[in-house]
Design goal:
By secondary structure, the chain is of the alpha+beta class. It is about 60% helix and about 15% strand. The protein has one domain: Outer membrane efflux proteins (OEP) (Up-down Bundle). The protein contains eight helices and four strands; from the N terminus they run αααββαααββαα. The chain has a four-stranded antiparallel β-sheet with strand order 1-2-3-4, with no helix packed on it. A hairpin with a 2-residue loop joins strand 1 and strand 2 (about 115-135).
């Protein structure tokens, strides 16, 4: 009779829950189409690892050092471990839980019975086990597990993004320091050149050949050059300290680095496939976040469905310790609980709306991250060709400015040109050499940006393996 009443109740509750579940989830495909190839093309098909583009073993050693010692990266690694532990915690929910408990008590009763004194101590021993399990009829607990594992994947992707970003930042900083050293060396050579020119101009003035204005202008040039030298040295020391901090070292500003910037000898391959972005860590993180939000939305919608929990207790209780393993003293119980949410003041509706809003947020975040990634790759590829032209023009300008300064020096000594022409030629030479150093660094920085935008080198990665089956 009880079964005849219980089964229709279960069917009714399940029907009500399924009706409350609502319509099927909407299409969550990101509204961003991935192109087959990039629009901006390059001129060769040579492929190497992105660090090998620069062919600097010492730089690779520094990056390995930073990956071990950088505090921000170690903090990200701890977040990965925490997410993994949380996934294991949530992953235990669909499994049965078994508990075993035991106890012992000693009781003493004293009193008078039939004019005799009674002092009768007694012992009681107990051994009990309990098994509890919630039936995952609708996959609600599985959704929670998948969401937790997706969170773990998100943290892992964030960690990989931090590793890649750290390597890129160290490489950028390395080249910035070398540029600063080159600029400081150029500034020092300029000071020396202006100082020699001032001696020549002052000698001419003492001989009555030159004018006081020439001396004033030359002194002004030299003072500006000395101020620029001090600025370049300050920038160099500050950049070195920043690099040391990234490496996890004390910022003493005393690193020994190369004197000149390397040249990029490896051109960007033609027709880089857009699928390279599938390995980009920030996109993988956004994708995992999108999956987690979808699982949590499904879980919120299934919270309206009924739940069934089973509980089993069994154990022994005896006055004698030896009887705890005697099946004659064994007792057990089995219970089943069915729950169906009916009214909770709109809490379930609010939880569903919250999960839906966060799911939509994750979807739009993924779409925006994809668009940003596409733009960064296109910008870096496009800039590559412009920077090559800019560097070639800067080299020509540097050579012409150097030859012009030599001509101005000779003509000034022979009295064929004025001080303004000489000072202008000197400034132009300094500016051209400084611009050439800067554009070489810009090309290096752009190549780093390209590798960072692609998430690695130019090799096409294998298809990613899904850590958790859908």
């Amino acid at each position: 009779m009880a079964v005849k009443v219980f089964l229709p109740m279960v069917v009714a509750l399940m029907t009500a829950g399924c009706a409350a579940l609502g319509s099927a989830p909407r299409d969550r495909t990101p509204p961003v189409a991935i192109p087959a190839t990039w629009q901006a093309e390059s001129s060769s098909a040579r492929i190497e690892s992105w660090l090998e583009d620069f062919q600097i073993p010492a730089l690779s050693d520094l990056i390995r050092e930073a990956l071990m010692r950088n505090y921000d990266l170690n903090s990200a690694a701890s977040r990965v471990q925490a997410a993994r532990a949380q996934a294991r915690i949530v992953g235990a929910d669909p499994l049965p839980a078994l508990q075993l408990s035991g106890g012992a008590t000693r009781t003493k009763r004293s009193g008078v019975n039939d004019s005799s004194f009674i002092d009768n101590p007694s012992n009681r021993f107990r051994l009990q086990g309990q098994v509890s399990w919630e039936a995952d009829l609708w996959g609600r607990l599985s959704d929670n597990t998948r969401a937790a594992y997706a969170d773990w994947q998100t943290e892992e992707a964030d960690y990989e993004a931090a590793r890649l970003s750290l390597a890129a930042n160290i490489t950028r900083q390395w080249f910035d320091v070398i540029e600063a050293r080159a600029q400081a060396r150029l500034a020092r050579e300029t000071v020396e050149s202006f100082d020699k020119s001032l001696d020549t101009i002052e000698n001419r003035y003492r001989q009555g050949i030159g004018e006081a204005l020439d001396v004033r202008l030359a002194r002004n040039n030299l003072a500006n050059a000395r101020a620029n030298l001090a600025q370049r040295r300050r920038q160099q020391r500050n950049l070195v300290r920043t690099l040391e901090t990234l490496l996890g070292r004390y910022p003493a500003g005393e690193m020994d680095l190369p004197e000149t910037l390397p040249e990029i000898s490896n051109p960007v391959p033609v027709g880089l496939p857009a699928q390279l972005l599938r390995r980009r860590p920030d996109l993988l993180a956004a994708e995992s976040g999108l999956r987690a939000a979808g699982y949590r939305l499904a879980n919120a919608e299934k919270n309206r469905l009924p739940g069934i929990a089973l509980t089993a207790d069994g154990g022994t209780s005896s006055d004698a310790l030896r009887n705890l393993v005697d099946l004659d003293f064994f007792i057990w119980s089995l219970a089943a609980n069915l729950t169906q949410p009916i009214f909770q003041g709109g809490r379930l509706d609010a939880e569903r709306d919250l999960a839906r809003a966060r799911d939509n947020e994750a979807l739009t975040n993924y779409a925006q991250a994809a668009l940003t990634a596409f733009r960064e790759v296109e910008d870096a590829l496009d800039s590559e060709s412009f920077l090559i032209v800019q560097e070639q023009a800067s080299r020509t300008a540097s050579v012409e400015a150097r030859d012009a300064e030599k001509l101005a020096q000779g003509q000034y000594r022979r009295g064929l040109t004025g001080i303004i022409t000489l000072l202008e030629s000197q400034r132009r030479k300094f500016n051209a050499d400084s611009a050439l150093i800067a554009v070489i660094n810009l090309r290096l920085q752009n190549r780093i940006n390209l590798h960072l935008a692609l998430g690695g080198d130019f090799e096409t990665p294998p298809e990613p393996q899904t850590a958790l089956a859908e």
